[in-house]
Amino acid sequence: MPESACGEDRSFDTRLIENHLARPWYRIGFDSDLERALRHDSMKIRRRHVLIEIAVLAGMCLAVAPIDYAEHPLWALALTLRLGFLLPVQILAFRSAFRTADSRVLDASAALSLCSAMGIITILACLAEGETTTRYVTVQGGLILVYSALTGQRFRIALISVGLVLAAYDAAILLVIAPKTQGMLAYVNFVTVFSLGLLGVRLFVFERSERLHFLNRQLQICLNRDLTRLTRELAILASTDALTGVSNRRAHEEYLEHAWADAGQRGQWIGLALIDIDHFKQFNDAAGHEAGDHGLVAVARALQESLPPEGRVARYGGEEFVVVVRGADPEAVLDLGERLRMAVEACGLMNPGADGRAVTVSIGVTSVIPSSLARKQDALRAADHALYESKRTGRNRVTAQALLPNAARHHDTEGRRVA
Q1: Rounded to whole angstroms, how far apart are CA atoms 264 and 374?
Q2: Residue 11's pLDDT band (boundaries 50, 70, 90)?
Q3: By CB distance 3.0 to 4.6 Å, which of 59, 251, 301, 355 could disulfide with 247?
Q4: Domain presence at residue 194
Q5: Active-site amino acid positions
Q6: Given this model, what pLDDT does residue 1 score?
Q7: What domain count does the chain have?
Q8: Which domain holds residue 381?
Q9: In degrees rounded to 5, what are phi and psi of residue 289?
Q10: Could you tell me if 180 and 258 lie in one domain?
């Protein structure tokens, strides 16, 4: 089945739905997957129809019982067949239809209810005489018409059920009842023609309308799904740096705004690190911009893979990156900065503009508990000052600075910290 998901536990492609909608009016059948989905969706409505049909037939069994007693010459047999056999069968069919979640069982329950009721009435009509026979035949024809108009069975099953009942009904009247009762042939023709006509109307009006409604609903689900997916993809593209695949500056600012507010509410530390690739202009001049792009991707990957789960990296601009780490106190953010520096140096990327030495980064870090006296602009400024200090003192090192002035500390490439 197609990969795109539409509806619960089903997968359809938009083009499949559109192809079904474009079919000629007389082709109402679906592909197997859509047909199963339709049966699943329409099960509740079809069950309600079948239960009403069975209840009507069971009600008629009870309602006509007094006629059996008062008019039928074999009233004891009639009551036994109606109340001792037919009524329990109707109750069994009703119970089965009420409990099932299988459309085949539902169709079988409806067929059992109809065929048993029509069979018993046909037997009683054949055994009756005169006006009593006419009443039985009239009631039976009316029930067939009602069933044809309201049945909850699928069309093919309904056609088979009604066809069998009509065949038995017509045969009984033509062979047994008509010779002893006048005027029944016209009524038989009326019931036969109109029953099949009502089934046809149900097929090409009600069932086709139901199927079109289902297809349009599925198409809307698919379109909504596609729109949601495209919106999500656009949101990702809008927040992702196209070259390196990490977050872009706009996404970083949104994330920092949220993380800063959350840390302030919780009274937790939040760490920042500004990272700049050393001698990147010489790299571009010596190797070309395409190689420079590959270098940016490699550095971004090294930074991303070295971050803890609570960290997030973004491209800040040019060859500069920024990292936000929730819950990182000054010691933790300094250790993280050193880990990021070592990860870039160890990634194996050489800088042809720096005598073939490994590509390195300079990093400035800071950590703060947000408050009215510690704004994120101040934290970014402190990290920027620390980065400048790393560059000034030789590059390929990490410098940490608090928000207070003149409170910087560094450590060089060997890890020695300098006050």
Answers
A1: 10
A2: low
A3: 251
A4: yes
A5: 319
A6: 39
A7: 2
A8: 249-418
A9: -70, -30
A10: no
| Predicted TM-score (pTM) of this structure | 0.53
- Which residue, chain included where needed, has tokens 């009639």? 78
Q: Which amino acid is at 133?
A: T
13: left (phi over 0), alpha (psi -120 to 50) or beta: beta
The mean per-residue pLDDT over the stretch 406-410 comes to 42
Mean pLDDT of the chain: 84
43 band by pLDDT with thresholds 50, 70 and 90: confident
Does the pLDDT of residue 22 top 50, yes or no?
yes
Instruction: State whether 218 and 254 are in the same domain.
Output: no
